[in-house]
Amino acid sequence: MKDALDKVCSMVNRIYGGAALLLLAVLTGAMAVQVFTRYVLGSSLSGTEELGRYCFIWMTMLGASICVSSDSHAAVTILNDHLKGRMKGGHKISVDILILACAVLLFIQGIKMAAMTTRQLTPTLHIPMSVIYCSLPAGAFGIILNGINNLIKRMDEAKSSALVQEGADDGEGGMR
């Protein structure tokens, strides 16, 4: 089961990474066109700022999922840096649970927002706002998937670490 989840997470992360890279290219191109038309031609092209903004939103949500998988998301580590052993493992597990809880909430509310905005169009590009709001459940799905995978791995680490500690306490040198 763990291997299957690892494979699914890896596949989702590759898809999200490719999509984020494509969105970054579109964002960069749109902003380059915006700067060129505004400062060289003296007249802005309508829609480039909006396109860049929406690409950035999608890229951020997809990237957040990838960051959770590699534990490279933004974090305040002052407490974790001072913990040792089982306390540190327990803290990491509790952080994973909080990330999962927030991602589930984001997923549910993102679906609600996308459903509520199907008829609302963006000001310049005239695409449904639901397309933009769909980035929330899409990113949250990846965060949930990677968060569950991280949680399973951390719980396995905590279990094996407890067994090693228990063996050391028994005077067996950690072997069972």
Automatic annotation (TrEMBL):
This is Tripartite ATP-independent periplasmic transporters DctQ component domain-containing protein. It comes from Clostridium symbiosum (strain WAL-14163). Signal peptide: none annotated. It is found in: Cell inner membrane. Belongs to the TRAP transporter small permease family. The chain crosses the membrane at residues 56-76, 97-115, 127-145. The keyword Cell membrane applies. GO terms for cellular component: plasma membrane.
